[in-house]
Amino acid sequence: LFGTNQVPSLVDQQYVHYILLGCKSELGGVTDELCRARAEVERLEGRVGQIKGVISELEALLHPIRRLPTDIMAKVFEFCVYESQGYARLDVKHAPLSLSQVCRSWRKLVFALPCLWKMVRVDFSTSSLNWYRLMHSQATAMRLWISRSRPAPVSLFLTSYNRVIPSPFVALLDMEIKEAGPRLRELSLRFPTLALCGLLSFTQTPLEFLEYLHLQSTDLSSSSGSIPPLIFQSAPSLRRLSITCHNLDMCQHQVPWAQLTELSLQYHSNPHWDQTHSNHLTILVRCPNLRTCSLGLGRITEDIVSDSIPPVTLPHLSTLNVNTYLQTPYLKLFFGALRLPKLRSFDVKNAIRGSGSLFDETECFRLLNRAAETVESVSLCRVDVSDVKLSSCLSQLPHLKSLRLYPGRRGLNHDLVAMLTLPSSVTRHGGRTHHQRTVCPSLESLGLRCSVSVAVDAVVALVDSRRQFEPRLKCFSLQLAGKNDRGDEIIHTLKARLSGHVDDGLQLIFPL
Question: Read out DSSP for 2-28?
């Protein structure tokens, strides 16, 4: 009857009922057996889980990490904090706090190692409605953190970009910094000027270990005042000082200038505001051990007679970075007075976008020429000078290895490309290859800024010429001003035509 539409007879119906009852009975038995099997599987699976857990615990007992000496574990933890992350911060998701949550023994070891707590970064910036409660909680956590670093020196990097900070919290934070003063090694404070002024009482404590101090105003307004003079009671280890604000009048600051090796006095404000500073030369003359110096030059706060400025010699200075903001006679006096017999890196930047040269470039170049035998790196950013003066200066720097020329909009001429291209004439003397190198014979890294009208052939010829002879050009960077479809086409073409040099080791960069 299966597969048909016939109506079963009475005999057939009885037979079907008989078969149906047997199938249902058999189904019940199979279902019960399946339930028993499933229960057995669940029991076995549970047993497997239990056995795996025991195996895992037994293997953990034999794991090599249990036998690591404490000093090696300390090195591993220290690597996690400072090498892997780069810095420590108040966050349970990051080391060392995350390490303390692994097990009881690790927690005990982490809290017993002062080296894991010797540095911390704390950002007090927040938009939370419970601002004060949150800040107070972070300050308390910071105090506990510092206490765990004893007796090791500690480094604090504290920041807040909130425009208004309640004075009670400033007083609390100032007290915490002052108490940590005798053990401070590095201190960085980035706060609004008003708050920053209330965080300087640490200078009245003995700062035996302090090596680095950075103070930065985060104000967006130039009317917020200035940082009061720093008057150190004792800071015998201070070597690096950095101050960033909109007023750099350093006349009243009592700092151990003679022991500094790094000094940075820069502006952190709108470049169109009135940046003022005292005579930097009177500070530099008191810093005979400087190796690195970074300065912002704006409007000087005092009248200076040119004949009254003696030469300032910094016998160890190797790196000088200058940001210029205003065209003043002081710029010429500043560059003219410096004597840097060991200068290696010189960087000048016009800090006001859209402008050309803001200073007498002749004096700047004279400074370079005085240090011609030692200078290896020069960077001129948004500084427009004539080809003749630039060529004359660069041709006197035989040891220059790195050159960055990023002129402003008025200086986007492409004679630089031709000027820096080596001539093709080659002569041999005594088995050695010689070629006429009129400009930068030792150049290994070159960065240029050009407009989109630059000739691709000229750029390719420049790179080709610099890759033919030793020392060969290792890095070439080309920035195109006013980049558009033409600029994308130039970049695509240069990548294709210089691919052979890239395969041979040239680093090719096209920054935005």
Answer: TTS-PPP-HHHHHHHHHHHHHHHHHHH
